[in-house]
Amino acid sequence: MSLLDTIRQWDEGAAAVGRKDWATALKVFSDIVDKNSKIYFNIGILYLITKDLDAAEKAFDNSIRKDEHLAVAFFQRGITFYKQQKFEESLSDFKKAFTELRGNQLIDYKLLGLRFKLYGCEVLHNVALAHAQLGQWEKAEENLHAALNLKTEAKHSLIDRALESILKHKLFDIVEAHAGEVFRPNKQHVAELEKKDYLGKATVVASIIPKDDFSGFAPLQPQVQEVPSRTKAPETLRALEGEPHRVRYEFIPETTDELPVQQGNIVFVLQKGADNWAKVFFNGKTGLVPYNFLEPVELTLSSRQEQQDVKQTDSIPAPPSGEAPVRPARGKVQDPSVPSRKEEKAGNKDEKSKEPMMCVVKVHATYTVAVSLKPGISYTAVLEAISEKLNQPRGTISLSYKKNGTERAKLDESEMENAWKEERNGHLTLWCELTENIEMAPKDESPQVVAIYSYEASEPEDLQFNSGDVITVISKVNEEWFEGKCKGKVGIFPAAFVKDYKNKG
Fold first, then answer.
1. Separation between Cα atoms, residue 445 and residue 348, nearest integer Å
2. How far apart are CA 463 and CA 366, in angstroms?
3. Secondary structure of residue 244 in the 3-state scheme
4. Among 97, 117, 238, 450, which is least packed by CB within 10 angstroms?
5. Model pTM?
6. Would you say 498 and 450 are in contact if contact means Cβ atoms under 8 Å apart?
7. CB 93 within 8 A of CB 74
8. Nearest CA among 13, 6, 66 for reference residue 36
9. Where do the H-state alpha helices sit in 376-453?
10. 169 and 137 Cβ atoms separated by less than 8 Å
């Protein structure tokens, strides 16, 4: 099958997907003889829609076999394994998808024909869910904390809700791509499928032959003495000044006069210094790049066209084959009394390494809360933080911990040092008992809201109230949930069920 036939069928199958005619689309894609990784991916997506999980798994296997760096294929096969309840295989694929992100927060597949962005935080969200299905709750929590650091959009508040579920040892929903999102062929290739007649039919306008009615492309003409042909020199691309070079390794600048470039970029070297630094022009900007990160390249009009074709190919650029060279020293003499940027970074790193890591302290009371504290602080400081979190007077709080991991021991100033020895991987668990018949003492500045709808508690930690009740807000859990007190009870409730209460007594 020719490339044109493949593109024609590919476009036909994508059109069927747009009409949600899954059966026709599946048949068209399956009939393509020379399937690439994208077409196999499309077949897997269609099998997922029709709930044929075994066939979807095989299709994604073929897609990965064709392109072992296609992160979205690992992601979708991980979802397939998860739906088959193969949680270990699912966990492995989600981890592989995150690895193929290569440190990026996301991959936008729009340029490759797929209207989908693969976010690193969503991949880690699914990694945590697979850990949870395997009963590995601590690893699930660690991955969700890592996902929180990679959040980029408001829709990723689902990670906060997932973390709340993990703290309660509950499962949550998996993140999936929208049904029907498939790779589509390049629009330019599709446009070239239709043959266009730009010349039309030739007609005779003038001829040296009387009554000449020749209508082809070469009517009779007078003979002209042949002139020796001259080989045309290749037309070198001179759109920009400087010598063209290709970037071999990614370069991350450390000063404002240095220029960030990625592996594979074409830059124009304007000046090369004796200190192995080059002044280059790239993407409308001028800056310094180490010359040993570059290699000369001859750019002609034909090679320029080849580069444009490469941009439209299916494969993702391969990573550099070797390690990046050492960053050369700058020739500029620096005042020895002023620390260099690297020394400042090293000093900041040393200072950060001296700072103690924060410990997440879980406190089991009427409901479970968590506070971040510095390990080793005094019992008074711990009690103060928990009192503020629960919005309870310190005199009504009694804390305890599991001594040596077995029986509970009452916590006081003398036992606090032993309690910190029970910290494991940045986590410490405490239990809290409140003195009975002691009402919470809300602060004067605590905001109040009024319920506009009745809310019925479905979990022990929920706060139940009726429409019109006034609720004191203790803290904000996230954008969608508050923690508050109403009628002597404390719990969490949805923010959408209340509005500001402006007429305080």
1. 38
2. 11
3. strand
4. 238
5. 0.42
6. yes
7. yes
8. 66
9. 379-390, 416-420
10. yes
> Tokens in use for 124?
């880690």
Do 80 and 44 touch, CB atoms closer than 8 A?
A: yes
Position 152 confidence tier, pLDDT thresholds 50, 70, 90:
confident
The H or E element spanning position 74 is: helix 71-83
d(CA 444, CA 384): 18
pLDDT band per the 50, 70, 90 thresholds, residue 449: confident
d(CA 354, CA 238): 54
Question: What pLDDT score was predicted for residue 443?
Answer: 41
- Cα distances (angstroms) measured from residue 462 to each of 66, 67, 395, 484, 486: 50, 48, 25, 10, 11
Tokens standing for 243?
């010598």
Reported as a pLDDT band with limits 50, 70 and 90, residue 505 is very low
Q: What are phi and psi of 396, to 5 degrees?
A: -95, 0
CA pair distance 77, 97, nearest whole angstrom: 10
Task: Compute, in degrees rounded to 10, the torsion defined by CA atoms 139, 165, 359, 97.
Answer: 40
* Cβ pair 501, 470 in contact under 8 A: yes
Return the amino acid letter for 305. Q
Q: Which residues contact residue 178 at a Cβ distance below 8 angstroms, ignoring those fewer than 6 apart?
A: 116
From the centroid of its chain, how far is CA 423?
A: 32
pLDDT band at 319 (very low <50, low <70, confident <90, very high): low
CB 89 within 8 A of CB 131: no
Q: With helix as H, strand as E and coil as C, how does 450-492 read?
A: EECCCECCCCCCECCECCCCEEEEEEECCCCEEEEEECCEEEE
Give the dihedral of Cα atoms 452, 456, 459, 463; nearest 10 deg.
Answer: 50
pLDDT digits (tens, 9 = 90+) for 31-84: 998 889 999 999 999 999 999 999 999 999 999 999 999 999 999 999 999 999
